[in-house]
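User: tokens in, sequence out, please.
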């Protein structure tokens, strides 16, 4: 029996070619031509094609709308071709919005024409996972990860994932909320920030679930809604004692997705 898979092609390196620089190619779904497996029929759509560093809230809403219009009875599942730079943000949004669907997002570290690219391998693994029939949103990138659990790639282009995270919201509308993400750093001066247009602040925590005292003091006196975000399950240091609004077991990307969905 042939499995029908919907491929939503959004651009990214997996759809790019190397000329004087890496740029989008003419066919955003060209990785399909490299698939050598059997018993699969691909249907392709491309609501937009961009390099993922340029993705916007409008693009995310267009993607959500595209998936909402999909008749999942016709398909074994959906593969989303995406760029790697903002993959963790988009995967978190889709994982919250469509947690009960069979969806895999995938990307590539280099254009697929290059012999050391992982793009074709990642796509093949995505197809295999879709064919397995496991519901849920996942990422295929040198492994299969739960989509709401991955962090953005590190300096070696590797993605890592938490074992679990907070429950998905099920919400599918991107709000116009202006969410500011602040990364802690030594001797941070909170007075340099302009909060006049900020609706919510997400404070990324250091890896030990701590923040500088300047941030803690700021939060005692601000009226702006805020949350601290940590991948840890607890905040055990004295410097974290008394902090409110901590989201545990969560990536900053997933916290951002939850904040902008309504």
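Assistant: Sequence out:
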């Amino acid at each position: 029996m042939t499995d029908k898979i919907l491929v939503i092609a959004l651009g990214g390196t997996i759809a790019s070619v190397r000329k004087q620089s890496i740029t989008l190619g003419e066919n955003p779904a060209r990785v399909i031509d490299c698939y050598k497996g059997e018993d699969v029929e691909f249907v392709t759509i491309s609501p937009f094609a961009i390099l993922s560093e340029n993705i916007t809230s409008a693009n995310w809403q267009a993607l959500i709308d595209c998936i909402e219009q999909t008749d999942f009875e016709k398909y074994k599942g959906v593969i989303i071709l995406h760029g790697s730079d903002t993959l963790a943000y988009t995967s978190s949004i889709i994982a919250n919005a469509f947690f009960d669907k069979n969806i895999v997002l995938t990307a590539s570290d280099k254009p697929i024409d290059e012999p050391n690219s992982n793009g074709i391998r990642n796509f093949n693994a995505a197809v295999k996972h879709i064919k397995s029939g496991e519901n849920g949103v996942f990422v295929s990138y040198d492994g299969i990860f739960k989509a709401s659990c991955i962090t953005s790639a590190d300096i070696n282009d590797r993605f890592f994932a938490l074992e679990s995270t907070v429950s998905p919201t099920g919400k599918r509308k991107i709000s116009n909320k202006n969410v500011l993400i602040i990364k802690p750093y030594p001797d941070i001066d909170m007075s340099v920030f302009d909060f006049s247009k900020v609706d919510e602040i997400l404070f990324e925590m250091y890896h030990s679930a701590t923040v500088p005292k300047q941030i803690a003091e700021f939060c005692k006196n601000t009226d702006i809604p805020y949350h601290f975000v940590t991948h840890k399950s607890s905040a055990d240091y004295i410097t974290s004692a008394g902090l409110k609004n901590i989201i545990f077991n969560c990536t900053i990307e997933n916290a951002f997705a939850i904040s902008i969905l309504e």
